[in-house]
Design a protein that fits this description.
The complex is a heterodimer of chains A (267) and B (439).
Chain A lengths: L1 H38 L4 E11 L5 E12 L6 E9 L7 E6 L6 E6 L4 E5 L15 H5 L6 E11 L2 E10 L9 E7 L5 E7 L5 E13 L2 E11 L5 E11 L10 H5 L3 H4 L1
Chain B lengths: L17 H20 L4 E15 L13 E15 L5 E12 L4 E15 L2 E8 L19 H5 L11 E9 L4 E9 L24 E5 L9 E10 L2 E11 L4 E4 L7 E5 L2 E13 L2 E11 L15 E13 L2 E12 L2 H7 L10 E13 L4 E10 L4 E11 L4 E12 L14 E9 L1
Parallel strand pairs in B: 8-12
Antiparallel strand pairs in B: 1-2, 1-21, 2-3, 3-4, 4-5, 5-6, 6-7, 7-9, 9-10, 10-13, 11-12, 13-14, 14-15, 15-16, 16-17, 17-18, 18-19, 19-20, 20-21
The chains are: A alpha+beta (267), B mainly beta (439).
Chain lengths: 267, 439
């Protein structure tokens, strides 16, 4: 009898638990692939980013910037340099982020009117990026290991086959949502849709990839929207003139460039 | 910064500005057109128009002054023009303000910045009128020995006007091991203090019936050129800087012909040398800064000349952190210690306000962003345990659109000592408003 129980347990483990574990690994792998395709494409990247912030009543505000990114480790440390053109009150401001998946980012801002570089306190990655519906984390990614990932189902978005991955933050205190569903393209690994659910279980924010184009052989989301379902506010972003592998030098990510952005990178 | 001496002629009354104004507008417009007619240049024109008003709300009139409740009533147009050479190595920038000062009843202009920039390899050279900001403090300055406009700050003008420009040259040299900024300032610029015709200020010679004031500024000689240097290096993301300055105090010393019955009061700017250092880096999920400096009062090393400030050690520690959603808090503690205090005490005539050997300031700043960062609520408070005085500055800024913003704030001063920095401003509590259209 005991022997039968033992075999039954082994059977249960093999049939039920192992595939689940394997599937969980797949979900994590899929999220890693997705971040690789979405946030680490190429060794470096330059784009003119135009953001349209639209309130529920249709009132629009604009943000326009050049965003430069360099990867120092695939899936790991990255540096960002952002130079603003619009709106007028942040024109000529530059902003630099040294991003580390395992610890707080380093962020600096240059304020031209005071000719002053300031390091800014940046513990909250869920705060809004330039007043938009995107958070810092939405722009530069969230550490894969901060969430438990599982494959919820498979579903098409448009004509693309997607894995739907549920990501539940391990530390609920650090986020303003309870879980996220991501529709990840099974072939190109780009996230085509994301849904954030509030702690009450309501749909809170929806991300959609509105246009995907091949840029220098790399599939790129060139238009995207983040919509807040609670208040109707949305942010539409287009990445224009995207370029990859342009050999951005390490020297761009320094105080000197913040104060005096090299023309070849920001115009 | 212990007293606000009465400096006359702070607000120059330049009249007949119509021609330069029209000329500038014409020049800018012509230049603007060229943007569309030539591809050789990348010309950019921007600026703002604002109305900025501040009213004293204590109901007091400064005795014998202009009798106005308004500390500030102005309309201002700022135009800035940038042009870069095709390869980006050279550029020029000019930022000019044209304004109507309703309190003084004058029209005026000021070139805020106007410089040529040249970049080559490791060098960045900037020559002309420019604004330079150093150091790590939030409104507390040790190694930032560059001129400030306290009058602007206390009457609710936007923060950028706290910094006054300097005329000179700056060279920045960048290497992997260490970088340097070296500044030579050709013409001396004093701190701009609150205008005594608008603010209640402490005047130690108020009892003197008629007193002639004179101001002697350094300048005119090559030897008067101020030199400032910052050597810095980032260790990881931690900024380590060293500073040195050779020049003059920007707050004047006062000399009278007679202590008992003065007839002539002369303001002058004694020589000063400053050495210091600072570190800014991450700490417990926030940003910490520490800064120190020694103010070597070259002309009063013994500390026995009452008209010149004694040498001082100055220290500052600060910490800021995001403590809630889009809510940042910053705290600072500043202390300065006077050298040769005994000599200072023994030369001070009886009845004169006496400065403490150790002076301290504690500050708090809270900033909260709301409504997709269109509304910013902020509070800045500074309190001195040694001088027992304070300044409170609450402010709300709302962006009606990307171009248009409205700011409403207040400055509340108080203190027990009528000669202390904020204590003497007690009757100048004010409310200010600013409506700005930026383009």
């Amino acid at each position: 009898m005991r022997r039968i129980t033992f075999y039954m347990l082994c059977f249960t483990y093999l049939v039920l638990v192992l595939p689940l574990a394997a599937k969980a690994e797949t979900a994590e792998e899929a999220m890693k692939n997705s971040q690789g395709a979405f946030l680490y494409a190429g060794d470096d990247m330059k784009a003119r980013v135009v953001m349209k912030l639209v309130a529920k009543d249709g009132k629009e505000r604009m943000r326009e910037m050049t965003m430069l990114r360099k990867d120092f480790e695939e899936g790991g440390d990255q540096k960002y340099f952002i130079y603003f053109y619009l709106p007028a009150d942040v024109r000529n401001m530059s902003f630099m982020v040294w991003k580390y998946p395992k610890k707080d980012d380093d962020r600096w801002i240059f304020i031209p009117a005071l000719n002053m570089v300031r390091k800014i306190a940046a513990s909250d990655r869920r705060s809004s990026f330039v007043g938009s519906d995107f958070t810092y984390e939405d722009i530069s990614g969230r550490d894969i290991e901060d969430d438990n990932h599982s494959i919820a189902k498979e579903e098409k978005v448009g004509d693309r086959d997607c894995l739907v991955i549920k990501s539940v933050p391990k530390d609920e205190k650090g986020t303003d949502y309870s879980y996220k569903l991501s529709w990840v393209d099974k072939e190109r690994w780009l996230p085509l849709k994301e849904e954030y659910y509030s702690k009450k279980g309501d749909l809170q924010k929806v991300f959609t990839a509105d246009e995907v184009k091949e840029v220098s052989g790399i599939f790129t989301i060139t238009k995207r929207t983040m919509k807040n379902m609670e208040n109707g506010h949305r942010t539409e972003v287009s990445f224009e003139k995207t370029e990859y592998n342009i050999k951005i030098e390490d020297g761009l990510f320094t105080e000197r460039s913040l104060k005096n952005p090299p023309k070849r990178w920001v115009e | 910064m212990k007293k606000w001496p009465v400096v006359s002629g702070q607000w120059s009354e330049r009249q007949g500005l119509l021609f330069p104004f029209i000329f500038t507008i014409f020049f800018l417009l012509t230049a603007h057109v060229s943007r569309f007619t030539t591809t050789a240049y990348a010309l950019d024109i921007h600026g703002f128009i604002q109305g900025n008003y501040a009213a004293r709300v204590t109901g007091d009139d400064p005795v014998g002054q202009n009798g106005s409740d308004y500390l500030l009533s102005e309309e201002r147009l700022q135009l800035e023009l940038t042009e870069r050479s095709k390869d980006g190595s050279a550029s020029f920038f000019i930022k000019s303000d044209f304004f109507r000062d309703g309190v003084a009843g004058t029209d005026d202009m000021e070139v805020r910045e106007g410089y040529i920039n040249y970049t080559k390899d490791l060098l960045d050279l900037r020559v002309g009128r420019q604004i330079i900001t150093w150091g790590t403090g939030d409104l507390m300055f040790i190694n930032d020995v560059l001129p400030k406009d306290y009058g602007a700050f206390f009457s609710g003008r936007p923060m950028e006007y706290l910094k006054a420009p300097v005329d000179g040259a700056k060279v920045e040299i960048t290497t992997d091991a260490i970088s340097a900024e070296i500044v030579a300032i050709l013409t001396f610029e004093a701190n701009r203090l609150p205008d005594p015709t608008r603010f209640y200020l402490y005047n130690p010679f108020s009892s003197a019936a008629s007193i002639t004031t004179m101001t002697k500024k350094p300048g005119g000689r090559i030897g008067d050129t101020e030199l400032a240097m910052r050597l810095f290096r980032y260790i990881g993301s931690t900024d380590v800087s060293f500073y040195a300055y050779k020049g003059f105090y920007r707050m004047p010393g006062m000399r009278v012909d007679s202590m008992t019955s003065p007839t002539t009061l002369t303001y002058f700017y004694p020589e000063l040398t400053v050495y210091g250092g600072s570190i800014t880096g991450n700490l417990f999920g926030g940003v910490a800064n520490i800064e120190g400096g020694y103010y070597d009062s070259v002309k009063d090393r013994a500390g026995d000349d009452l008209t010149i400030e004694n040498s001082k050690w100055k220290f500052l520690v600060g910490y800021k952190k995001e403590i809630g959603s889009e809510l940042t808090a910053g705290i600072q503690y500043y202390t300065e210690i006077m050298d040769d205090y005994g000599n200072y005490e023994s030369t001070l005539p009886s009845g004169f306000p006496k400065e403490e050997r150790v002076r301290n300031y504690a500050t708090l700043r809270l900033t909260k962003m709301l409504m997709y960062q269109t509304l910013r609520l902020s509070f800045f408070g500074i309190y001195s345990p040694s001088d027992e005085d304070y300044l409170l500055n609450p402010e709300a800024m709302y962006k009606l659109s990307d171009e248009l913003s409205f700011t409403l704030g207040g400055n509340i001063f108080g203190g027990k000592k009528e000669f202390a920095m904020f204590g003497q401003l007690e009757k100048n509590d004010n409310v200010y408003a600013n409506l700005r259209y930026q383009f």
